[in-house]
Amino acid sequence: MGAGKTSICNELLFKNKNALRSARYEKKRIILNEAFKASPVHYIVTAALTLNRRLAQTLINDKITSLAWKATEHKRSEWNEFIGCALDHRNYNGVPCDDRLIRIKWFIRELTDVALFLDQSPSDAILVHDESLLQRGVGFGLGREVPEQFCVAYFNTVPLPDLVVHVDLPDAELLRARIDQRAGDGKRFIEHLDTAIEMSRLGARIMRDRGVKVVECDGGAEISHSASKVASAVCDLQRERV
Question: Fewer CB under 10 Å: which end of the chain, C or N?
Fold first, then answer.
């Protein structure tokens, strides 16, 4: 947290909105399509409700839809090893139960997102997913007796995206300062910061070894420069698909 991932994501979407869609937008599109299948009235009511940001958050983002669960069921056998690895909590040491539950909540939401997009999105769509399953690999590893060992198992089994944006901030002190300025309870992870940085870098290396295009961004560089770098990699990806 605090390295600049979301800032790069927002800049990327803002400047390339004709080519890219956010995962949040895609979930809304899928939900509206399902409402339209039910009836035009369902569609109109659902569309009207999603205009309200708070209601949209409840309808689309905070609730794991039956569609997402159905899509996840389709992937259950394929992802069985990965899910077992991620949710095995036997090797935790001193991590409070409520922290584990929060991590599991986000993991489930992101896992079902991926299943839903694979099941419902057009094959040529390029979706930008902030706060992804890959980030969970770092969060789940913190507090493990051997975090690097868990990291290797997690990143070698996680479902593969086409492209990964890895934001690194080599200046750990600057990163600590950024986290300290943020609202919320993320400050409690500062003591694990060095471990998290190394796990993030290890995860990026494993993704690259598995054939994923990894775009390395410097968290200390200009946001627009990093977003342009990612956009260029996305264009290369699109050309390869054609």
Answer: C
Largest Cα–Cα separation, the chain? 55
Whether residues 125 and 149 fall in one domain: yes
**10 and 52 share a domain?**
no
Return the bridge partners of 214, or none. Answer: 164
Structure tokens at 50: 């999603």
- Alpha-carbon span 33 to 179, nearest angstrom: 39
User: Residue 29 belongs to what domain range?
Assistant: 23-63
Q: What is the pLDDT of residues 44-76, one digit of tens each?
A: 888 888 787 777 777 666 666 778 888 888 898
pLDDT tens string 85-108: 888 766 666 667 777 777 788 888
List beta partners, residue 124.
Answer: none
| CA 159 – CA 78 distance, rounded (Å) | 9
Distances (CA, A) of 4 to 1, 10, 17, 129, 170: 8, 10, 20, 14, 12
CA distance 186 to 68: 28
Residues 169 and 194 in one domain: yes
94: helix, strand or coil: coil
- Does the CA dihedral 238-165-112-23 come out positive or negative? negative
118 plus 149 within the same structural domain: yes
